[in-house]
């Protein structure tokens, strides 16, 4: 049964100071959707702007407006959910239809009155929804209790339903009969994107090629590096996809280390009792945190400990992304919580695939297209060797996730963005799972 208590009146909502928390180029004012003026594109967001202009045929000014709206989205959503706790039903950015923030509510007229008092109100569209997020959360929890470990239940804000992901569709469907707004889904066929050749160099950064090695350091395979972490004792970790190890184990090999792809030098020890790795699909938890064996070598003084190697790869924005653009010290300064990610968020991935005939190694941008089975889905091209690549927001410098797999072939030319499905483990969820597994706190290294 779904019930909720309605409150009389509308709670006042303030957005004062919202722009002050944004990067300078994002806090420079906003214009209503569709009304833009020519403006130079800052180097720090060139590739994200390039994706939007190429994908949606909008001006650079409108692309920057969309990025400003996305950066303000967290604050706007917090205020809306606080003012409408029993009516708020989620949000998404509709890049295809004007680049507006679409807010769903069970009482849309009431929600529109709240929106009218917000900054960016003329860039927000309110649509009706059958169920609030509170309603759906209750259904999700009931579904999880009924299915146990056979399935993973989550709220899909875009569809206003609870999705239950499982490999046992018939049995789970029977168990959930009559529960309400529930859709039972099975995992798509996908291809893991580990590979077999490339190079990397210190200092340790996200987005460079790494070797997966034996205890001796001899390479067995290649993946890409993700974000750098520390634990509550100050130990340092490099990260990648968990399947870079579990797939080798499944084949009877004995991976034990992350090594330099260039010279076999050991970077991290995955068999250290403080290291942790996993690879599950429901929920998607495909991550590996390997304790760094020589911090002095891989994190030398004078260098950022949380940099990302940003090298434009011109995919999928071939006319806007300049391959000469390179920043080996692009800083990652925070983590985007999984619950705060919404469909339409513009994101970028820095991958080290060696398949240079199919895709240039480096940074390519796109958007979040879904959040299936506790994971992230984007339309960003990924190929063999991109496993473990970091997913991040170029404009806010926030970490989103770790690349896991693609639906379809991981070789050959990139397909059209609308046909691409690349999957990631949310970093926030990987950190929580690692804490549960080890009883230790893992977090981004703060420079």
From TrEMBL:
Signal peptide: 1-33
InterPro entries hit by this protein: Peptidase_S1_PA, Peptidase_S1_PA_chymotrypsin, Streptogrisin_prodomain, TAT_signal
Keyword terms: Signal
Record's protein name: Streptogrisin C
């Amino acid at each position: 049964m779904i019930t909720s208590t309605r409150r009389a009146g509308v709670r006042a909502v303030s957005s004062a100071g919202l722009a002050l928390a944004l990067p300078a180029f994002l806090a420079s004012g906003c214009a209503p959707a569709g009304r833009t003026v020519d403006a130079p594109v800052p180097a720090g967001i060139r590739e994200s702007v390039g994706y939007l202009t190429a994908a949606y045929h909008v001006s650079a000014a409108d692309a920057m407006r969309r990025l400003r709206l996305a950066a303000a989205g967290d604050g706007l959503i917090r205020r809306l959910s606080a003012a409408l706790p029993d009516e708020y039903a989620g949000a998404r950015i509709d890049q295809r239809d004007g680049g507006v923030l679409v807010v769903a509510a069970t009482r849309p007229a009431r929600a529109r009155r709240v929106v009218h008092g917000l900054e960016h109100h003329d860039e927000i569209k309110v649509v009706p929804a059958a169920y609030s997020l509170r309603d759906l959360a209750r259904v999700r929890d009931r579904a999880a209790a009924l299915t146990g470990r056979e399935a993973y239940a989550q709220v899909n804000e875009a569809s206003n339903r609870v999705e239950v992901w499982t490999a046992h569709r018939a049995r789970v469907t029977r168990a959930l009969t009559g529960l309400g707004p529930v859709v039972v889904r099975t995992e798509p066929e996908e291809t893991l994107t580990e590979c077999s050749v490339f190079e990397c160099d210190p200092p340790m950064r996200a987005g460079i090629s790494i070797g997966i090695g034996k205890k001796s350091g001899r390479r067995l395979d290649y993946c890409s590096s993700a974000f750098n972490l520390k634990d509550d004792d100050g130990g340092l970790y490099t990260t990648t996809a968990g399947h870079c190890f579990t797939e080798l184990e499944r084949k009877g090999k004995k991976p034990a280390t992350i090594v330099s792809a260039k010279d076999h030098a050991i970077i991290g020890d995955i068999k250290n009792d403080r290291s942790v790795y996993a690879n599950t699909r429901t929920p998607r938890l495909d991550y590996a945190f390997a304790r760094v064996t020589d911090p002095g070598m891989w994190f030398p003084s004078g260098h950022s400990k949380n940099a990302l190697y940003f090298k434009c790869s011109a995919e999928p924005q071939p006319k806007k992304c300049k391959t000469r653009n390179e920043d080996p010290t692009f800083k990652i300064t925070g983590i985007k919580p999984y619950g705060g990610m919404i469909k339409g968020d513009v994101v970028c991935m820095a991958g080290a695939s060696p398949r240079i005939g199919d895709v240039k190694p480096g940074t390519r941008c796109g958007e979040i297209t879904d959040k299936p089975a506790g994971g992230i889905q984007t339309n960003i091209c990924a190929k063999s060797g991109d496993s473990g690549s970091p997913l991040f927001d170029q404009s806010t410098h926030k970490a989103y996730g770790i690349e896991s797999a693609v639906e379809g072939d991981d070789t050959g030319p990139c397909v059209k963005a609308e046909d691409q499905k690349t999957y990631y483990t949310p970093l926030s969820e990987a950190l929580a799972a690692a804490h549960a597994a080890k009883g230790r706190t893992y977090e981004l290294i703060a420079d």
